[in-house]
Design a protein that fits this description.
heterodimer; A: 241 residues; alpha/beta; Rossmann fold; 6-stranded mixed β-sheet; 4-stranded antiparallel β-sheet; 9 helices; 10 strands; 35% helix; B: 318 residues; mainly alpha; two-stranded antiparallel sheet; binds adenosine-5'-triphosphate; binds magnesium ion
């Protein structure tokens, strides 16, 4: 049994099959996340990484398999129910509220799970000073990197127990990639469990506890890298060759 | 900003200042003022769905008609005093709102939703015309004079006071709705439906709720119509009426509660002012609408919003 299917996990997905009308994408994916653990999902374009995250968050309905989160079965539940349990996703498209201000975007992040909204927002502004300076700015007028910060900040407003990040560094300039990496490292220190899809392998390996390689909808490799670093070249080879 | 909250209270001065109005107005002018009041809930409900929720739904005239017919039928056929028909009219409006919202739940949007909701209004008109024993068919029905707590509202001035109470109630309640988590859900859905769902908002439920609340408020406007005009006919709820109602929210300001109020007043009053230029009334009325939308795409309310922040519609309490 792979080590990530042991009990006491925060999330355990088994035998996930999912896809779109007439096109299966995931073929029996197993994935587990322990509390405070960071799992990175690697894979070539079109290998099904986003589909896997969307299945966990409920935006894609699994055809088969089970997803247990804190002991409850959540496979096939609507996204808003899954969100309420504490699984919050930052999608690849970021899906912000473009015509609303940074502040309103953040507040809407706390809509479902409540809490001390103002205190949560101030906390986000402390982590993202760049957003604090622009709190009244409309999100559509912000740069890609700033928008990614809004997306992550808004996800934090939902007080996630499990954060799903889909290519957080995607399409960002090196300065922003660094900044985002620092933020993710900070979230890891705060013991927020994460599943991260990331193309930037250096970044991925710097934050991961474990990684999985997805290939045509199947997990072809899984490795714990807490004990020792993995070889980057090896990983690139197993992703693409 | 506590200063802002204090100034919002000043809005209460508006209905208070209006109280002596019947002393100064003749019956006709008072009727026009009552008509303005009636268009306030009609605009508010429309604006909640189109302006706040952001869906292109043109079923407003259906909710309006349902409200008017509910009051009319209850009063005429069952002898229910008018004031007791107001709530049922609102509830029937809400029911019609839910029905009109069903295609939206099936993912119908934009022009497709526009045409389906238009068809819904026309379908109801067909019912008004064909269901003769209940609705009186094409000729409609005469509604008995409205009464409240056993008092008959004999003059336009009497109706004015009851209408004023209803309008204030609808404005205050809708303000509450829009500034609650309901309103924030509407705002999120309007801006990005997928993102709203990703933030844990059950979008279907809130779309239906917006339609229901819109239908409720407009249905009450319909009930006011029955009391004001005293005659309910299918032709009152046709496409021309719908366009007029659309002009109310466009001129007032999409997504603005204050805009609905201003739009109702302006659209109702304007033709009265243009009466002096006989033969040019429709032209002037059309030009007014075009001018406002051209130069103030966010409506007359946006003009006030520029003057003072108290006029800005807010979804969050400061
Ligand atoms: N909504 C959809 N409808 C139909 N097919 C889809 C849909 N979304 C994704 N696909 C297809 O599913 C496959 C896997 O897509 P997915 O987005 O999961 O890949 P990915 O690993 O995230 O790729 P990338 O690295 O480019 O983001 C692709 O072939 C894609 O074309
Ligand atoms: Mg992807």
């Amino acid at each position: 049994m792979p080590e990530d299917l042991l009990p006491n996990q925060l999330l355990t997905a088994r035998g996930l099959e999912a896809g779109y009308p007439g096109k299966q994408i995931l073929f029996g994916v197993d994935l587990a996340v322990a509390p405070a653990e960071v799992v990175v999902l690697l894979g070539a374009n079109g290998s099904g990484k986003s589909t896997a995250l969307n299945t966990l968050s409920g935006f894609v309905r699994p055809w088969a398999g089970s997803i247990r989160f804190e002991g409850a079965e959540i496979a096939g539940r609507p996204p808003h129910r899954i969100f309420r349990r504490g699984i919050v996703q930052v999608s690849q498209a970021r899906d912000l509220f473009p015509d609303l201000t940074v502040e309103d975007n953040l507040r809407l992040g706390a809509w479902a799970r409540g809490g001390a909204v103002d205190a949560l927002a101030e906390d986000v502004f402390r982590s993202f000073p760049r957003l604090a300076e622009r709190r009244r700015q409309m999100v559509r007028l912000m740069s890609g990197g700033e928008q990614q910060m809004v997306a992550i900040g808004r996800a934090l407003m939902g007080r996630p127990k499990l954060l799903l990040l889909d290519e957080p560094s995607g399409g960002l300039a090196p300065v922003f990639v660094k900044e985002i990496a620092a933020i993710i490292a900070e979230l890891k220190r705060r013991a927020i469990a994460m599943v991260i899809v990331e193309q930037n392998i250096k970044l991925a390996l710097s934050i991961a506890d474990r990684f999985l390689i997805l290939r045509d909808g199947r997990v072809t490799q899984r490795q714990d890298i807490r004990a020792g670093a993995a070889d980057e070249q090896d990983i690139v080879r197993s992703i693409y060759l | 900003m506590p200063r802002l909250r204090v100034t919002r209270r000043l809005f209460w001065l508006v209905p208070l200042a209006l109280l002596p109005l019947p002393l100064y107005l003749d019956q006709y002018r008072q009727y026009v003022v009552n008509l303005m009041l009636m268009y306030v809930p009609v605009g508010i409900g429309f604006n909640v769905v189109v302006g706040n929720l952001g869906l292109l739904a043109f079923s407003n005239v259906a909710f309006f008609g349902i409200g008017a017919y509910t009051s009319g039928v209850l009063a005429l056929k069952l002898g229910v005093p008018w004031w007791l028909t107001i709530l049922p009219a609102g509830l029937m409006g809400a029911l019609a709102g839910c029905a009109a919202g069903i295609p939206a739940l099936r993912g119908v949007r934009l022009f497709y939703l526009a045409i389906m909701t238009l068809a819904f209004g026309e379908l109801l008109r067909w019912v008004y015309i064909r269901w003769v024993p209940v609705t009186g068919g094409s000729f409609g029905m005469s509604v008995p004079p409205p009464s409240v707590f056993g008092w008959t509202l004999e003059t336009e001035g009497h109706k004015f006071y009851v209408f004023l109470v209803l309008v204030v109630l609808m404005v205050v309640l809708t303000d509450r709705v829009l500034r609650s988590r309901f309103g924030r859900a509407f705002m999120a859905i309007k801006d990005n439906e997928l993102a709203a769902a990703a933030m844990g908002i059950p979008t279907d439920r809130y779309i239906l709720l917006a339609f229901a609340w819109g239908g409720f408020v407009v249905g009450i406007g319909g009930s006011m119509y029955a009391a004001l005009v005293g005659h309910v006919t299918p032709i009152a709820f046709d496409l021309t009426e719908l366009i007029l109602e659309f002009a109310v929210i466009m001129v007032g300001g999409l997504g603005s509660l204050l805009g609905s109020v201003i739009g109702a007043a302006v659209i109702t009053a304007a033709p009265e002012f243009f009466r002096e230029w006989l033969g040019f009334q429709e032209l002037l009325f059309g030009l007014l609408i075009i001018a406002v939308i051209l130069f103030l795409p966010r409506g007359l309310a946006s003009l006030l919003a520029r003057l003072h922040p108290v006029f800005v519609d807010r979804y969050y309490r400061d």
